[in-house]
Amino acid sequence: MSPDKGASRLRCSFAADERGDQLAGTAAHARGFLLIESPGAWGPNALSESRLDPEIASIVATRAAAVSYRVLLIKRPGRSQANPRRRWFVIDSSPGAEAVIEGSYASDRDLLDIPLDAGRGDGTLPTMYLVCTHGRHDACCALRGRAVAASLVEQRPDLVWECSHIGGDRFAPNVLVLPQGLYYGRVQPSRSPDLIESHERSEVVVDLLRGRAAFRPVVQAAQHFARIENGSRSITDLEPLWVRETGTGEIRVDLAHREGTLSVTVRAVAGETAGLLTCKATHPMHPPSFALQAIDTQH
Questions:
Q1: Is 107 exposed, middle or buried (0-12, 13-18, 19+ CB in 10 A)?
Q2: β-sheet bridge partners, residue 175
Q3: Distances from the Cα of 253 to the Cαs of 27, 95, 239, in angstroms?
Q4: How far is CA 57 from CA 62, 67, 71, 93, 178, in A?
Q5: pLDDT confidence tier of residue 9, bands split at 50, 70 and 90
Q6: How far, in Å, CA of 210 to CA of 214, rounded?
Q7: Long-range contacts of 274-283 (CB under 8 A, 24+ apart)
Q8: Are 262 and 219 in contact (CB under 8 A)?
Q9: What's the gap between Cα 67 and its chain centre?
Q10: Virtual CA dihedral for 190, 191, 195, 200, nearest 10 degrees?
Q11: Kind of pairing between the strands at 32-37 and 69-75
Q12: pLDDT at 4 (0 to 100)
């Protein structure tokens, strides 16, 4: 029995691979991200169980949630060097208004002064590849994520960070590409060059894309079905124009397209095979997914 086959009996991501859980429509919804460099070990709840002062961490989390920003801890892959000043980044991932500001902090109390308004950035948009390696949250993230982080570092060493839990443990290895907020899952080391080259062409890798954080999951899924239908790869294509429920359990998503408007109708469904959706889960569940009902083009 291969190592992967043995691991699949115990680890959520291997089991999800075997079930074929749908990637599209699974990116965590957020307007943007607050990244805080914090070397060292992270507990299951990274923000409150790290080297950061838990009281200050709680205040920072509340401030970020108020503006729909997700807080992630980050560190450089490999052994982290002791540094008296650590970095932070505020990233607005709103399509067409992406912005990044960054700074550093010497004491945890300095984190209370971070301006949660990336709109004041200087216009430069550095690419960042974040790989979830948060093993204390879910073993799959460390087990499968670290090899991907190492692969990305070989190609773009200054752009890669390990990060805390970003959601979707069963899709490990997970990669978050910023500032656009693109979530990718099942990114094996062999696919790292494809991800980098596509992003540098301002394109997405459709078969690995979980979705863009700025959009609701149903929009992410509709965009995926539209990309499969028309071959679109551009990050900026297929902007959502309208989302509405039909009253029959279906949801219609209108997307802007160069040939007009694409109307994608989907239905939220449950996966056929139940399983443990995280390594710590105790009860099997049917994984949520979306089923395509129709695609229509309006010229």
A1: exposed
A2: 131, 184
A3: 17, 17, 10
A4: 9, 16, 10, 22, 22
A5: low
A6: 12
A7: 275/12, 275/15, 275/16, 275/19, 276/12, 276/15, 277/12, 277/16, 277/169, 277/170, 278/12, 278/138, 278/169, 278/170, 279/10, 279/11, 279/12, 279/138, 279/139, 279/140, 279/169, 280/138, 281/12
A8: no
A9: 18
A10: 50
A11: parallel
A12: 45
**DSSP structural state of residue 213:** T
Instruction: Compute the distance between CA of residue 284 and CA of residue 278 in angstroms, rounded to an integer.
Output: 9
Q: Where are the beta strands (DSSP E) in the chain?
A: 32-37, 69-75, 86-92, 99-105, 128-132, 160-163, 175-178, 182-184, 209-212, 240-245, 250-257, 260-270, 288-298
Q: Are 219 and 240 in contact (CB under 8 A)?
A: yes
3-state secondary structure of 256: strand
Q: What is the DSSP letter of 203?
A: B
Q: Give me the phi and psi of 268, to 5 degrees please.
A: -75, 130
Nearest to 252 by CA among 230, 221, 227: 221
Which residues are 265's β-sheet partners? 252, 294
Asked whether 74 and 36 are in contact (CB, 8 A), the reply is: yes
Helix or strand holding residue 142 (H, E): helix 139-155
Segment 47-87, tens digit of pLDDT: 999 999 999 999 999 999 999 999 999 999 986 666 778 99
Cα separation, 108 vs 93, whole angstroms: 25
Asked if residues 128 and 159 have their Cβ atoms less than 8 Å apart, the reply is yes
Q: Which helix (H) or strand (E) holds 199?
A: helix 192-200
How many other CB atoms are found less than 10 A from the CB of residue 236? Answer: 12
pLDDT digits (tens, 9 = 90+) for 160-176: 999 999 999 999 999 99
